[in-house]
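Hey L., structure's done. Input below.
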Amino acid sequence: MSTTATLPTTALGTDGPLVGTQGLGCMGISEFYGDTDAAESRATLDRALELGVTLFDTADIYGSGHNEEFLADFVRANRADLVIATKFGIVRKADDPSYRGFDNSPDYIRTAVEASLRRLGIDTIDLYYVHRRDPRVPIEETVGTLAELVAAGKVKALGLSEVTGDELRAAHAVHPIAAVQSEWSLFSRDVERTAVPAAVQLGVAFVPYSPLGRGFLTGSFQSAQDLGDNDFRRSQPRFTGDNAERNAALLAPLAAIAQAHGITQAQAALAWVHARGEVHGLPVVPIPGTRKRTRLAENVAAASVRLTAEELATLEPIAGQVAGERYADMSFTSAGRE
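Output:
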């Protein structure tokens, strides 16, 4: 199908920004998914804007600040035409690349926002997410501090990542939440238990990350053994050993649907994510990540694909059959707090 489609728009939350119905996850530009090409990555950002992508997603930990710095020139050059989202709350250690901690304390938030503003070279962050919930800090306290940043003009809208429905309600009672960002794909539907119903009730948009199952749903790799040594997916349970073989076999219906439409598996998988918005009655803005213009155009075109009720029914059982957890350490998600 054509890869020159442009995107319609939708609002993030009741009073949140207007964005294209598909965003761009920028994490892979800096690390996690193997080697990258800076020139092609920048060209991909420019092409995304041309195709109607206006939500660009980063975080302070991606490349330990590098991702925000890389985006800075692009953001400043197109400030009026895009929505920049970044995140705080995950802490890394320079001497331990595998370490991940959490910090949502007020002092940390105030330091983190200033650092992100400086790296991005802007005065205001359009959408500022709590990247992960710190269970030591009441979510009301965290959001209260963020509300102060909104009042000070440093942040326009607030978001949460990997939260439960109850946590979203508690946060929203302190200050309106524009968007929840959590993993949501054919392989990962945990959010439909409590977070999505709460978002529907409160008028909060959903921003699915990894809508392509970290690339596995595209069929581009069959197991972790197909990936480079510096690819973090080599450590994820779903892509290793017997799990990988079992999960690859689950993609047969997706491949058949893609063939019937004359599209790629990636486009069929993204079309399923877009369809969840219609099923649940809320704005859904997936943020597939890519560093290549060709993949970007393919992803954008998927937003205009409509799967039939029969096709959606065929795909319905897949998530319940997936082998392995999303992460080796699921404390990194909201699953343990459901």
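The chain has a mean pLDDT of 90. The CA atoms of residues 309 and 315 lie 10 Å apart.

-- N.
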